[in-house]
Amino acid sequence: MSKTPHIGLDYIQDVIDVRKIDPSPYQHRRHFDGNKLKELAASIQREGLIEPIIVRAIHKRYQLIAGERRLRAVRDVTEMETIQAQIVIAGDLQARRISAAENLQREDLSSIETIEAIVEIVDAELIEDTQYASMGRKPADRVKTLLGKLDSVRRSEGLGYEVASEAKLTSNKFIGSVQEIFKNLPKPVKWLSFYLNDLPLLMDFCEDVQDISIKHNPWRRPGLQSVGIRTLLAKYCDHHPICQRCRTPGPDLIIQPEIHGLSF
Q1: pLDDT given at position 28
Q2: Can you tell me the distance from the alpha carbon of 198 to that of 10, in angstroms, rounded to the nearest whole number?
Q3: From 3.90.1530.10, 3.20.20.450, 3.30.70.580, 3.40.30.10, which CATH number describes the 2-104 domain?
Q4: Strands 82-88 and 2-3
């Protein structure tokens, strides 16, 4: 048994039947470009699979952890019946962390898929803390709540206001971990910038706007989607006035296109 070079887990390398591989429950990527899958499939047929997919064994089948594009290319485009895989020993949390990190390293992720991957990484790193776990039912809700608490303390202290002891304790408990998580992302981003400029697209705008963002990917890196959000809303949301999931905007919705030097 060997250890995977990037994630340090024990694995056995084998060739497995693509029909026995189930999708990852932690895969939140929504769009796979059909033409690029065909190109990848042609490359695999020509040169072989350079990097095996990563799976774990569950109930006499396999669950995908990393390598969805490679699996789709082989299974859906070619006539190949098997694929090279690293079969790892991983628990649910480990599988989730690996999947999220692998997603974020993909070059062709849309902005909103990048935001979702960052949310997954943050949530997976903090979910074992009971206080954090109680902040919401879904990963995005928990991340938004925590970052909102940190930002509230930051703003209050900046204005010279007294901060409640409970809020201060929460900030002191999590701020170091949050800064470290965002610093160590494959593509680092400041947590405050993520909270103010990126997370609103995932939390506050309707699926029509999100789907257009994914399919056309007008802003490839976090921080730019809030710049053009008014353009998307004007074109694709029938209800607009800053949407808030097609409702009146709440006080937490912050859109600051001017910070990037761009306007619409």
Answers
A1: 66
A2: 36
A3: 3.90.1530.10
A4: unpaired
Q: Is the pLDDT higher at 212 or at 226? A: 212
pTM of the model as a whole:
0.72
Supply 254's token pair. Answer: 């912050």
Q: What are phi and psi of 106, to 5 degrees?
A: -70, 140
What single letter denotes the amino acid at residue 231? T
Spell out the domain ranges in the chain: 2-104, 111-260
Q: Which helix (H) or strand (E) holds 107?
A: none
Task: State both tokens at 116.
Answer: 């979702």
Q: Are 126 and 146 in contact (CB under 8 A)?
A: yes
DSSP 3-state of 235:
helix
18 neighbors 62 (Cβ within 8 angstroms) = no
SS3 14: strand
**Residues 175, 169: Cα–Cα separation, whole Å:** 10
Identify which of 208, 171, 216, 257 has the alpha carbon closest to the alpha carbon of residue 31: 216
DSSP line for 15-42: EEEGGGEEPPTT-------HHHHHHHHH
pLDDT of 9 above 50: yes
Residue 214 has a pLDDT of 55
Q: What is the pairing mode between strands 61-66 and 2-3?
A: unpaired
Query: Quick one: which of 16, 70, 33, 17 has its CA closest to 48?
Result: 70
